[in-house]
């Protein structure tokens, strides 16, 4: 049946119900039970034990299935906790209520109340003594209500995805649990949760292309933040010493299975700590989460076994290129040779790119995918680390790390650059990159330099991608599976 014909029949049914005095969208029902609570409470009770219980239970949820047997029917009702079966019989309901039930549709929101019993197949069931319509579904559920499988439709219509695919809801329950565990972990270590501006007069704190908007009253351009870093370090300078923020960042970049232009990040900063301290803290945090979720540090991600047992491997960018990708020292140490190597593999590099930038382009292409077990990559080139402290032994590198698991970057941290003169030089280096055509390079930020001139204590900071972390701990192949409403191109018919 065409959708237009289905809609027409549904609307005719709704008009008939209204004429007979039924409210289609009442708001006067109190519900005291849930499907899961009833099922759990009587999970061990047999038929005889249930027959002695005179208590009535009331639930509300979506009608998901109906099996008619003439004057009787079994139905499935789904609430936020799961599904439960109910038994409907003409001899139990009054005539008006039974007449209403016969015209209910799968997808309607209903209320049921009654006693519990077990069927011949031993399924715990509510014997419906009352049924009410709470919200009439005008549109039918997709695919005859057996499941929504089209990936794009699932992302565009998450409400339907959640209705017909219960496992999707579990992903977002686990996401919430992971964030709760992170918060508790940080608070237990004396970190203070804070909020910093989402709209900033200057995009900073990361190397990325921002979204731009305009504030009419102030007549000024603003940018959706690409990172909270520079504001959080202002708080460190102000003496707060241990701060963290879990919130959204926005980067005007491509969309892929692990990139969304709007994403959730946890950034934290600890005064009197180094990047090595944060590597240990990150190990502790992720092993804590895994233990709470799985009771184990071993699990699978997309068929790959993952073992979070510490200590995790720590290897420099240089050694990873040599040991894991088999690239010779001569290539790593020579700009022209590195550019030739990159171009021979079709990688995007320019003649005037500094060596450190070329090296990281090669690293991203040939090393990342090999980093399956948790690995800290350390000692990043100064050219790609404008806010990181230089390494004391070799100032061409920085005291920085990135954590990789299953070939994806999960976290990025470093000992913070708190020398205002050095910071100005780094910004000038980034400005040269911008003038050469890199519109993701960091801009000069005079106000932030003034902040450093008031003396920021030695500090280490880190950002953890919450979405990618949730992907890992829910075995989800795409970032869109762990974001309730991922960004999609608007369809030709105007649909989102």
Helical segment count = 16
CATH superfamily of the largest domain: Bira Bifunctional Protein, Domain 2
pLDDT average, as an integer? 94
**CATH class assignment of the largest domain:** Alpha Beta
Computed CA radius of gyration, to the nearest angstrom? 29 Å
The biggest beta sheet is recorded as: 8 strands, mixed
Walk me through what this model shows:
By secondary structure, the chain is of the alpha+beta class. It folds into 2 domains: 3-140, OB fold (Dihydrolipoamide Acetyltransferase, E2P) (Beta Barrel); 164-324 and 367-481, BirA Bifunctional Protein, domain 2, CATH 3.30.930. It has 16 helices and 18 strands. The protein has an 8-stranded mixed β-sheet, sandwiched between helices. The model has no long low-confidence stretch (mean pLDDT 94).
Secondary structure elements and pairings:
Blueprint: H1 3-19, H2 35-41, H3 47-51, E1 57-69, E2 72-79, E3 82-89, H4 95-102, E4 109-118, E5 124-135, H5 151-156, H6 158-164, H7 166-188, E6 192-193, E7 199-200, E8 211-215, E9 220-224, H8 229-237, E10 242-250, E11 262-271, H9 275-294, E12 298-301, E13 304-307, E14 313-316, H10 317-323, H11 329-332, H12 335-344, H13 355-366, E15 375-381, E16 397-405, E17 408-415, H14 420-435, H15 446-452, E18 459-465, H16 466-474
Parallel strand pairs: 3-5, 6-10, 14-15
Antiparallel strand pairs: 1-2, 1-4, 2-3, 4-5, 7-9, 8-9, 10-11, 11-18, 12-13, 15-16, 16-17, 17-18
């Amino acid at each position: 049946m065409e959708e237009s014909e289905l809609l027409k029949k549904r609307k005719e049914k709704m008009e008939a119900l209204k004429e007979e005095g039924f409210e289609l969208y009442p708001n006067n029902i109190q519900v005291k039970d849930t499907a899961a609570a009833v099922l759990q409470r009587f999970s061990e009770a047999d038929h005889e034990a249930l027959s002695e219980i005179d208590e009535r239970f009331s639930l509300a949820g979506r009608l998901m299935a109906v099996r008619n047997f003439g004057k009787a029917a079994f139905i499935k009702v789904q609430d936020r906790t799961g599904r439960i079966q109910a038994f409907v019989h003409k001899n139990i309901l009054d005539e008006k209520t039974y007449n209403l039930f016969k015209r209910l549709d799968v997808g309607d929101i209903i209320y049921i109340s009654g006693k519990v019993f077990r069927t011949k197949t031993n399924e715990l069931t509510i014997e419906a003594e009352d049924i009410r319509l709470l919200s009439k579904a005008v549109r039918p559920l997709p695919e005859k209500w057996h499941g929504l499988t089209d990936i794009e439709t699932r992302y565009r219509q998450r409400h339907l995805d959640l209705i017909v695919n219960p496992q999707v809801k579990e992903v977002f329950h686990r996401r919430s649990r992971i964030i709760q565990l992170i918060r508790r972990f940080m608070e237990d270590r004396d970190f203070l949760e804070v909020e910093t501006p989402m709209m900033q007069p200057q995009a900073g704190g990361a190397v990325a292309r921002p979204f731009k908007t305009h504030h009419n009253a102030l007549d000024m351009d603003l940018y959706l933040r690409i990172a909270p870093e520079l504001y959080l370090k202002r708080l460190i300078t102000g003496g707060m010493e241990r701060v963290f923020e879990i919130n959204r960042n926005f980067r005007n970049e491509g969309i892929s299975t692990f990139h969304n232009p709007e994403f959730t990040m946890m950034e934290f900063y600890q005064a009197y700590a180094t990047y090595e301290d944060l590597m240990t803290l990150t190990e502790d945090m992720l092993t804590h989460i895994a233990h709470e979720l799985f009771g184990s540090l071993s699990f699978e991600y997309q068929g790959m076994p993952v073992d979070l047992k510490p200590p995790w491997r720590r290897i420099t960018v240089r050694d990873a290129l040599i040991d894991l990708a088999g690239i010779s020292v001569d290539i790593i140490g020579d700009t022209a040779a590195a550019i030739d190597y990159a171009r021979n593999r079709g990688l995007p590099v320019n003649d005037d790119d500094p060596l450190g930038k070329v090296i990281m382009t090669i690293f991203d292409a040939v090393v990342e995918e090999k980093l399956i077990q948790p690995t800290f990559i350390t000692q990043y080139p100064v050219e790609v680390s404008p806010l990181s402290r230089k390494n004391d032994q070799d100032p061409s590198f920085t005291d920085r790390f990135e954590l990789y698991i299953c070939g994806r970057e999960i976290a990025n941290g470093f000992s913070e650059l708190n020398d205002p003169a050095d910071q100005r030089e780094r910004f000038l280096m980034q400005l040269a990159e911008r003038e050469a055509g890199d519109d993701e390079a960091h801009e000069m930020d005079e106000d932030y330099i003034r902040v450093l001139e008031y003396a920021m204590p030695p500090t280490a900071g880190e950002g953890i991608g919450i979405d990618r972390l949730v992907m890992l701990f829910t075995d989800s192949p795409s970032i869109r599976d762990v974001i309730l409403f991922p960004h999609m191109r608007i369809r030709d018919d105007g649909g989102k």
